[in-house]
Design goal:
The protein has helices at 2-5, 16-40, 48-67, 72-88, 94-111, 115-134, 158-168, 200-209, 221-225; strands at 145-151, 169-179, 186-194, 213-220. By secondary structure, it is an alpha+beta fold. A 4-stranded antiparallel sheet has the order 2-3-1-4. α3 (48-67) packs parallel to α5, α3 (48-67) runs antiparallel to α6 and α4 (72-88) packs antiparallel against α5. Mean pLDDT is 77; it is low at 223-227.
Length: 227
Amino acid sequence: MEPFLRGDYAAQPIDLPVLLLGVCLAFLGGHVISWTYMVTHSGLSYSRSFVNSLVLMPVIVTLVMMVLTNNLVTAFGLMAIFAIVRFRNILRDTLDTTYILASIVLGLACGTHRFPVAVLGTLAIAAILLYLSLTMFGARHRYDTILNLRWVRPLNDLPELERLLERHCRKIHRVSQRSIGDREGADLSYRLLLRNPARLQDLEVEVRAQEGADHVNTMRAEDESEI
């Protein structure tokens, strides 16, 4: 290990304990941020990939800052590399962008002769990615079905519909309500946690039969959020 620990040939070698401390703190801090996001997120578009990126990105940025320490030339090189990647590719998945960033950091570390940063950083990033994948970190099971419908009766009659939903669901949450022009009623969207997921079709049939419910459709939560 001695040759490896002395394998940083940059002008200002990295202190290995500081490197390990920085990576660990970034990893833990990323967890805090991602947990906060998972608890406070509202709306219909939730992505586990984005949550994983919140955990991994602080680690990668920490490695970037260690590679770029007081080196203006390397910093400009990093900006040029990102400009090329952005120009040539449109990455729709946040985690794909994170992989690109990790590859760039690895190349920068090797190119600037910071070999311990390259090796330990690569191992840390690979371990975190495997951990996120194996533990399914960021997946939320607070609901399993999304129900969308148009309610054409007065909104005061909504409790009648929600009592029907409560018979089939452990938990219901109305996440969207939009008025229908000058008419009575609204377009509604519910998050549902079913008592028995196998009876989703029965729920849909009963909602369609409910007076005032129109344009009824359901989807599984993972079809909407785990893309």
